[in-house]
Amino acid sequence: EQILDQENYGTSTKFYFIFIRFDFLWTLNYFALLVLNFLEKPLWCLGNTEYSCSDREYYFLGQLPYLTSAESLIYETIALIILLMHNLFPISYEGLSIYWKNPINKLEVILLVIMVVDLLAYVLYLSPVGYFSLPFRMAPYVRVVFFILSIIELRESIVILAGMLCTYFNVLALSFLFLLFSSWVAFVMFEDTGQGKTILTSFGTTLYHMFVLF
């Protein structure tokens, strides 16, 4: 509705239809980003000079061929450019004010910045100069997050899972409090008995036995 009230409604409509015309490309790019996680060589493989990742007798990582560093870099750069176009193109028909009100758009912009910085660090790592070592990359994990954000059903599943986790932690906290109380009662009750002097000798020991019992 906010877009309909804009003065440049005709221009916004034109840009919107251009955007949805490339839906197939946007969707294909998300799958390409996910597939890249299985085709690029992991950093620990690049740093291992004793064994090659293609040595299936030492590393059994499936039969998919690994891309070279140059091929992986070209692949990732093209996919990232398409991803930038997909996520920033709505500004042309929504406007920056409407675009920035959506929390998902804000999250995607933050993730895009992380991916760009990560890619630049990876380029420096692969360069002949090699100023620094790169212990790990954020991009493989961010790609999965982008894939989840691109599918509404997956986003809703994550929200439901987050709600279930809150309930789970509440039940876990109550169970732990019950365990502490039961252990204290057992320690006090058996303190002057034979079992208390041989088995339940301290509150920590009683807590351990009660945990095993439960």
UniProtKB/TrEMBL annotation:
GO MF entries: voltage-gated calcium channel activity
UniProt keyword terms in alphabetical order: Calcium, Calcium channel, Calcium transport, Ion channel, Ion transport, Membrane, Repeat, Transmembrane, Transmembrane helix, Transport
Membrane-crossing segments per the record: 15-39, 73-89, 109-132, 144-165, 171-190
GO CC terms: plant-type vacuole; vacuolar membrane
Keyword set includes Transport: yes
Protein name in UniProt: Putative two pore calcium channel
Biological classification of the source: Eukaryota, Viridiplantae, Streptophyta, Embryophyta, Tracheophyta
